[in-house]
């Protein structure tokens, strides 16, 4: 459905993406995951045919002539790009007209899509007055007016609260059930876990591409989950000097990344006891995608 072969795109001296090889299958929810500057937006814009002067080959829906098939895409860009001084309804009707939806169909389609996205009751509100989550739903609604086969979404939930994010993903799942292929860029690991497959990107390169479960299974280290009220950075430093490869902290919870959990566990216990630090919990736990990503980002990964 979408294939990138050895694609490199530079912006003057800056690398956008480098020697990127990707294959996205029809019907997938495919995640482009990585920190700011990883190359996610560049990848999406290349697939949309919006960037020229790249090397390599890009095929979308069976053609390299992406210009010709643009009408089969939906796109939610990173920045809200609809008219803030038009109402929800006016924006959607305008988009419908721009996409050439027949006048006789616009009304029915608008109602259906705004109902689907939960925006019907807000249809008379100015778009500029919507909450962040509603704005993103409106951008999604706009992208649906011409029934796309592939929907590209660039960090669609950035800055949106957790409940609205969950609702937004529910909509993506509903759309995917109808057979729509979804390509979504996200910096959030919890969203990456919702994708069928993810491409982990860093500095313009693909670091790993697999299902979330495969990425977790291939994780080469052990994780010890430590729960402690300690706040002392020096203790963390001592742990790191010991045998711990890295520490991811989640409030009072720490994920200690180690090579061998049994030997290390004892050494960690001893260190904390020496520092008179309480241990509420210290046991092996399965890594989450965030651990995988941090390992890849900090330790060179499994290139
Ligand atoms: N039009 C441009 N001109 C110059 N440099 C660019 C341009 N677009 C992207 N870049 C650079 O290319 C690299 C990849 O950027 P890109 O926007 O694709 O990353 P990203 O993963 O989407 O990050 P973000 O979440 O910050 O958008 C960055 O170093 C960025 O500064």
From TrEMBL:
It comes from the Bacteria. Keywords: ATP-binding, Nucleotide-binding, Transport. GO terms for molecular function: ATP binding; ATP hydrolysis activity. The keyword Nucleotide-binding applies. It holds the Pfam family ABC_tran. SMART domains: AAA (SM00382). Residues 2-228 form the ABC transporter domain. InterPro entries: AAA+_ATPase, ABC_transporter-like_ATP-bd, ABC_transporter-like_CS, ABC_transporter_ATP-binding, P-loop_NTPase. SUPFAM superfamilies: P-loop containing nucleoside triphosphate hydrolases. Belongs to the ABC transporter superfamily. This is ABC transporter ATP-binding protein. It comes from Selenobaculum gibii.
